[in-house]
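Section 3.1 - Work completed
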Amino acid sequence: MLFHNLARQNALPPATAFLLISAHNSTMQRLLQYRPECVRRPGRINLLWAMLLAGAALVVVLVALLRQRPAETDDGTTKLIVHCAAGLRVPVEEVAQAYQQEYGIAIQLQFAGSNTLLNQLQVNRFAEGDLYIAADDFYTDLAVEEGLAAETIPIAHQRPVVAVRKDSEKKISSLADLLEPGVAVAMGNPDQAAVGKAIRKQLEKIEVDGTNRWQQLEERVTTDGVFKPTVNEVANDVKLGAVDAALVWDSTVAMPKYAEDLKAVTIPEFETDPNLVSVAVLKSSVDPTAALRFARFLTSRDRGLKTFEKYGTRPIDGDVWSERPEISFYCGAVNRRAVEAIVDDFQKREGVSVTTEYNGCGILTTQMKAIENQSTEHGFPDVYLACDRYYLENVRDWFQDDVDISDVELVIAVPRGSKEVQSLEDFVKPGIRVALGQPKQCTIGALTRRLFEAEGLYDRLKEKQKADGEVVVEKMSSALLVPDVVAGHVDAALVYITDALPNTDDVDIVHLKSQQNLAVQPFSIARTSDHKYLVRRLFQRLADSADSFEAAGFHFRLPQKGKAGSTATENGSGDSGAAQ
């Protein structure tokens, strides 16, 4: 009956439903024809088990098919299910309605306290849901740590305040006033509402006379006040006069429902770093691309964030809205083997277009300098992953603080079995044909010059290059060096080990003993980019892909989950602002 109902309700395509119904009916007919005496006949019990297992397999297939289909409304419209902190109801409802009207995607909103919603996700991690919006990023970060969510995107800042009625006769202007006997206070339950948890966390730090401010406030609320599961219920209590004061978000007081009757009282104990409202894409989403698209709309500075600002939060400086953003990625050629598949997966999941230009960094930075005002509209990259810091330094003023992702070794590549070249000094010997990077066009050329200068060999190399009959070839990209060795055009080349490793059937690798044989790859975002948060998510994908870099021959510098330093952005120079 289940299969018949699913077919009638269009939960499955007609052809798929027909096959499932037919297989199900056939299995049931065989079971009904089964006779007890068959138990005593050899082999018949195996047939019974086979039919039972077949029925179970059909159910598994059905569940898998249903899981692969995006949720739909009764009229067939694609639907996204959003779990949202109750205090954010007004702005989120308005943004959701605007998105549905413009793009025809239904947004089903479910409201509760941030912690209550997280608990529901923890209990049933495979339940329906596409996005989770929390009043504090503590909860979305925890959802990621526990494997419930993937990407997170910041939305806006807010702080706890004291809310009182504008016509209240009680003078409440400090935390001490709240602690006075006879003052009835309402606040969010710390185990359910983000505002309660934020207040408890802050006040526990303030020790007074062998106790702390939180213990004092908790006792006062327990005696004469009330704990509520959501910030809206807390605000309702003070609006209705059931309590003298309420602890809510500053944005709560600015909501239309409360702005006319309530005023916010700021107190020093809460004037610390603000709490960050954020949205997470849940791993239970069957259409993460659609979920990410709405999340980008919600967090864009020219769309969703305007609504959040209207209702009292302080929004982040989000990206510019585009249904399908296009970002430009300048990437030093050495990185291609490590990042190409990651970028491809990223743009498919996000539903965006990433135009990646792989080339020598000398060429890439020359192109950057030719673009007027570093405008991304005129081709300036949104993001740059250099082959080495050497070339990032040339354009540093145009990029945010950088993060070192990896490093790669410079080695000598020689034809398989050859022993003619075993050191840099062999490069300057007469008759030895060599290939090197061009110093002004690619990073490996600049590093080669630095390496030969450190060994006191650069002048001799230049003299050899001028001599008649000597072969000293300079290439504009590191990717062009190893092919010359494989083809037998040269006796040796100074290359990245990442270019040599895929060709070990034809070349041998000679390692160098030098402090200068290392290239370090920094990642940085252009100051002029309108898609900084999108690019930060690309960074996070790279930061989570150590295996891809190491398989290509890189040494990965960013700490991984479960290893020392849990945050990828803790490594590298600067304050890692490129990725935060």
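Second construct:
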Amino acid sequence: MMLEEKVQYPQGIPINVIMSSIEEYPIHYHGNDLELIVVMEGTIKLIIGYRTILLKKGDVFIVNEDELHSMYSGAANKILTIQFDLNFFVQYVESLEFSYMMCETYLDGKKIEDLNITLTSKIQQLIQLYVKKGAGFSKKLTSLSIDLLTYMKSNFEYFSIYENRYFINKLDLKDNPANVTRIWEIYKFIYENYDRKITLQEQAEEKHFSMYYLSHIIKDFIGISFKELLNFSRVEISEKYLLETDMRVSEVALTCGFSATRYYVKAFENWYGQTPEEYRTQRLSHAKAEIKRDVLPLQAILDCISEERTEERYRGNPLLRDFYSKVIPFSGQSARMKKKVNRNNLIFITREWGTSGLIRDSLFDILRSKFEIGVLISTVSGKLQQELSKALEFMDEEHLDKAIYLFNNDKNMQNHINFFETLATMMQFHSPGTKKFTLFIADNSSSPGNFQYLLDYLKQNTPLDDFFSVEPICCENLMLDHDSYVFDSICGTPYLLHDLLRGDKRTICPLVDGESPSADILAGGSGLTAWNGLKKAAYFACLFYAMLGEEVTAENQDYIITRKEDSYQLLFYDYYQEGYKRIKSFTSREEVSGIFEEGVPSSEYIVEINHLRGTYKMTRLKLGDECCLFYKWASMGFPQGLTKSETILLEKSIFPEVTYEVITLEGTTDLFIHLPRFGSELILLEK
């Protein structure tokens, strides 16, 4: 079965235009053609490689030559397809046959918006001429097509792969044409030689560069390493072998240049989230399906384009989004690899944590059920026994069996040893309520040698083992005091969720900020609540995490779906690593409060629910800046103190937006999620 679709161009015209309403268009590719998909009305889902993308009215998508893609929709739509004969246009647009273009951009900034506005305007000029024709039609059409393709190549050719998953139009590559050329030469070389052993050293020697230099060019420009690029290219090429032939997976692996089948399967799963066999089973029937579309008269194109829609009218149009929505298939089935939610994270508290009376509530009981809770204990000069006695009594009262000790830069090791010996002595005579507990020792010093000396001492001093077990932890994951309002605001919540769910090491958070010397409500601390007990956005982010089920059914960088018996929990959060790199240096409250004035785009997801049947109660909890303590405080003008009534009102108004709905699931149901920048949403489905 051949999936290549031969485009039939009108006599003497190197472009083809079709307006249609599409229900299903099976998997195919174009060998020597470039295709533009423009959504005129409605929506359509585009499957291209491992990505499923929802395109809405106003969206333009570029399908490059040889890219496998398909489209389907259950809703009314009008889709404009423009195809260009590359065999003709390569004589006018330099290196067009080696280009890879994309405009499903989601970078922020006016520059990208302007590019989309101009692109849409040029497409409209071309289409109006194509439909109306007139004198000198063929020559004018060719001229407009060359202008459009040149513009696309100049502005949409600079792709980068973000987080090994998302393609973005990285415009800053445009400023270094020499390296862009090198990248495309490497990319072209891979696709022409994928079936044999290819090394970075081979390419470095050919271009007279060091391997180190060439490796950094690839990583900086494309976002992944040479090996990852090679594996991605081979996996992408293997799609055709899986769908067009009956070759065994092992044969496909060798044909595509993998030295062993297991390497191929691992690389395929990394990009597609399933094995090659699963991919073949799932998509083969779709590849063989019939085309279901109604071709509309060309006049229908003009009916969708108003002559009054000038460039100025396009500016700020929400339909011209800077990114694409992500479509997430959800069957409710358990993941093939039985994976559990990471539950080794820790919240630490001090003996003063309940003084405000604002955080001893049922919400904290939920946190406590899914977090390890420990008390922070430390030495106080001249009051060691007294402080330790109070700490042990507090642990008894709160039924805590974990504590944290901060190893600081005290150069006198005897002080630390005295602490542990005193603790062990007191444990011998302490009431039986406190049994053996876990003592986390956090290295908060710049003396790794001294820290190791202390650990060795505790390991060798076996009598101490009778009272507490020692576990060292790294302060890189110890959120003591970041001195940044990013962690006071909602901006830090996606990164907190990401660390809680996917961090290699446990994430350790203080429950309460230390009291601000200036009496400000917030002062850049990393606690889950302010010093007066008012909850920050981070508190609710941890609450969302705690409400997840134990079994993971699907996950990615910015969402996780879990299951508990017949209930499902879907958590989405706006994790954008590049954005965090930009804002994490913000320390002033004015800088952080100004982030949302930039008009950064939000995120959209569509969960495609299949194979779930029955009636479900759906609870949605949405966290955005409008229910964030920091932005309430900012809107009040950053007052230093609060009146009693203001504190009570803030306590009542700071809570995620909650909605309830009863839904009946049958067939396929689409669930729409719209997140503001840095926001998160938890959806609970209970049968």
